[in-house]
Q: What sequence folds into this?
């Protein structure tokens, strides 16, 4: 089982709102907290999946969402998690699959603040809007350009 919660982390203020975080003055990243059963899926698999569904080479954000809160990062809780993330980055860089260097940071996890209810499972609550967003932002095309046709969808 994998459970995800949308929210914010890495910033300066307690209980941030989307409006505050999107103004780019809180230091928070928009993030997803993933809870999983390691007997069913490994942390390594989750890290690999993450990288192949984002653009880890964009220092300004993701797709049409630009700004500090939209940059990619992996928030780790343990030295083992940090090692897994850093090994994945090194393997991707060594493979030469990406034209540009990875800018995704590996950061020690801090307090995670759940986002407002309307942000939770947005893709399920608003499937048409979400599909339009993905298409209009060029997300799927960019992921395919980076990683190939079989990932990111």
A:
């Amino acid at each position: 089982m994998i459970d995800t919660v949308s929210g914010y982390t890495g910033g300066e203020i307690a209980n941030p709102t989307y409006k505050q975080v999107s103004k780019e003055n809180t230091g928070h990243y928009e993030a997803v907290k993933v809870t999983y059963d390691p007997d069913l899926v490994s942390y390594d698999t989750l890290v690999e999946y993450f990288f192949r569904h984002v653009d880890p080479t964009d220092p300004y954000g993701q797709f049409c969402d630009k700004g500090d809160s939209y940059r990619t990062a992996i928030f780790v809780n343990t030295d083992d998690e940090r090692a897994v993330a850093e090994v994945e980055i090194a393997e991707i860089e060594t493979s030469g699959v990406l034209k540009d260097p990875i800018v995704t940071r590996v950061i020690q996890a801090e307090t995670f603040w759940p986002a407002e209810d309307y942000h939770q499972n947005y893709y399920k609550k608003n499937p048409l809007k979400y599909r339009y967003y993905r298409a209009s932002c060029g997300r799927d095309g960019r992921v395919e350009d980076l990683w190939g046709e079989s990932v990111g969808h």
